[in-house]
Amino acid sequence: MNEKVLTAAKVLYDFHHQERPTNHADFILTMGSHDLRPAEHAAELFLQGKADFIVAAGGFGKITRDLWQIPEAEKYAEIMRAAGVPADKIFIENESTNSGQNFQFTKRLLASKQITVRSGLIVSKTYLGRRAMATAQRQWPEVDWYIDSPAIPFEQYPTVDVPLERMIALMVGDTQRLLTYPDRGFQVPVTMPDRVLGAYEYLIAQGYTTYLQ
């Protein structure tokens, strides 16, 4: 992979990685994906006392529908229980297929259990952070949202299970959604610097278009 592609990808990665940590929130919402590290990180945060319970959210997404036999939320819950999170502190929302539904369906789940929350701590893929927060603020604005995702440098993020080529294509798709989803009512608007737009357009020109809509 040429250096210009890597440089542009890092620009997107650094832009999408957003943090707003907190000492405590009412609950943690983990946004499911093919990357298992958010589940591990959510377990760590819970065991540090950062929240009272966890919602593992996610059914089968565009990648996991071809990879796993069980929904993302159930896979995440397995990991969190193995890490020491009590089973009765994990609620499972296993029907959502996109980021907006992660919040919509979790809101519905908690309402069905008559659980009221005022603050939430999002745990997502590192490079989904900015879109996760923008989505939460639109879909569930009554909650004060924080976000704390795995602090992994761009160079160390790709793995066998999270290949670099796919990761770049996903970031390009998420950048497009930040640009188009506010007008569709899915997310709050996000200001995008020129250098991020330039990196996005360059990567599209290089063929990273798999997850564009």
Q: What does the model show?
A:
- There is one protein chain.
- The protein has 213 residues and is of the alpha/beta class.
- The chain has two domains: 3-14 and 156-205, no CATH class; 18-147, HUPs (Rossmann fold).
- The chain is 42% helix and 13% strand.
- It contains seven helices and five strands.
- Strands 3-2-1-4-5 form a five-stranded parallel sheet, with helices on both faces.
- Helix 3 links the parallel strand 2 (51-57) and strand 3 (90-93).
- Helix 1 (3-16) packs across helix 6, helix 2 (37-47) packs across helix 3 and helix 4 packs across helix 5 (129-139).
- The longest helix is centred in the C-terminal third of the chain and has 17 residues, at 164-180.
- The chain is globular, with a radius of gyration of 17 Å.
Distance between the termini: 25 Å
CATH topology of the largest domain: Rossmann fold
Please count the beta strands (DSSP E, at least 2 residues each). 5
Low-confidence stretches: none
Average predicted confidence as pLDDT: 95
How many domains? The number is 2
Under the CATH scheme, which class of the largest domain? Alpha Beta
Order of helices and strands: HEHEHEHEHEHH
Helical fraction equals 40-55%
By CATH, the architecture of the largest domain is named 3-Layer(aba) Sandwich
CATH H-level superfamily of the largest domain: HUPs
